[in-house]
Amino acid sequence: MAGFALYNVPPQRRHFRNRDGFSLDFSDEELRARYSIMVISDLVREVIMVLIKSPFKGLDKGTVSRVVQDTTAALCKRQNEFVKWPRRDAEKNKIKAGNYRIGGFPNVIGAIDGTHIRIQAPTTDEASYVNRKGYHSINVQAVCDADGKFTNINTSWPGNAHDAHIFRTSQVCKHMKRTSNWESGILLGDSGYTCRQFIMTPYARPANEDQTRFNRHHARTRCVIERTFGRWKRSFHVLHSEIRMKPEKACSIIMACAILHNIALWMNEPELPEDQEEEMPNVDAVYNGANDGRRIRDHITQMYFTN
């Protein structure tokens, strides 16, 4: 039998070349210009798609899974930094003015709606994730401002949960209850929500032209949330397909995509200088009546949509 000679081969030190001239000396503007946030968004999207569909060339699925999990966890830890509810009066007034420019509806600090993100059938509590259209999903509730940035998002509810129930038990609803006054602003929701003092819904059966006009401006202003959902899903195709993970991981993926959506908007759309900020017309529409959603809705109709 032939013998084998053993040799001690010293390990080879790997040398990495700086291929693109990366430097830590860039200013914020230079860094944004050179490394667009959309590159990061595309990278995360491609990694997620690899995990969802099948192992890619030479990549172990377990490795990709850990990368996705670590990346989404790091993003979700910074949720409160990038998905922020307007607290200061200046922030609220800017959002109100933006929404007024969109659809002529006064005092709106956000449009609210739900959207379903398809997931694979879970092994636990499977029936709870079947939505009204018959497929398994996460029912995502979100509020956005006039620029399409998410100011609040909830990704933790299964598909069969109703939009009104999600809102009723949400932190946004509790906050709006605590600060329920005209100056704090209102939300616009569709007919799936209950009309309350802090959330305006359309008239189910308009009784006159004023109420019809109210509904028209309501729809024109509220559609910003629908456009935002569309842009969000186009940017992250994983939200259009079926997320083949457990619901807990799917919720983290959805939240990470929402955070990246906001980061992309902030980096590509710089804020206007304060002296160029547009304001709503100075109309004396302060409401001093009963704290009831329907009466506030009638008040808005009379003040803004009556000829």
Summarize the structure.
This protein has 307 residues and is an alpha/beta fold. Helix 2 packs antiparallel against helix 9 and helix 8 packs across helix 10. It is globular, with a radius of gyration of 24 Å.
Q: What structural category characterises the helix and strand content?
A: alpha/beta
**Overall 3D form:** globular
How is the largest sheet built, in terms of strand order?
3-2-1-4-5
Written as H for each helix and E for each strand, in order along the chain, the element string is HHHHHEEEHHEEHHH
Number of helices in the DSSP assignment:
10
**Major sheet: size, sense and barrel closure?**
5 strands, mixed
In terms of per-residue confidence, which ranges show pLDDT below 50 for 5 or more consecutive residues?
A: 35-39, 50-56, 269-285
Taking the alpha carbons of the first and last residues, their distance comes to 105 Å
Helical coverage, percent range: 40-55%
> How large is the share of residues in beta strands?
5-15%
Mean pLDDT: 79
Secondary structure: number of strands: 5
Radius of gyration: 24 Å
Walk me through this protein's architecture.
Residues 112-262 form the DDE Tnp4 domain. Keywords: Cytoplasm, Hydrolase, Metal-binding, Nuclease, Nucleus. It is found in: Cytoplasm; Nucleus. Its cofactor is a divalent metal cation. Belongs to the HARBI1 family. The structure is a single chain. This protein has ten helices and five strands, in the order αααααβββααββααα. The model is unreliable at 35-39, 50-56 and 269-285 (pLDDT under 50). It starts with 27 loop residues before the first helix and ends with a helix. 44% of the residues lie in helices and 11% in strands. The chain is an alpha/beta fold. The protein has helices at residues 28-34, 37-53, 61-76, 79-82, 89-103, 163-168, 171-178, 209-235, 247-268, 293-304; strands at 108-118, 137-144, 150-158, 186-188, 199-200. Strand 2 (137-144) and strand 3 form a beta hairpin. It has a five-stranded mixed beta sheet. The radius of gyration is 24 Å and the shape is globular.
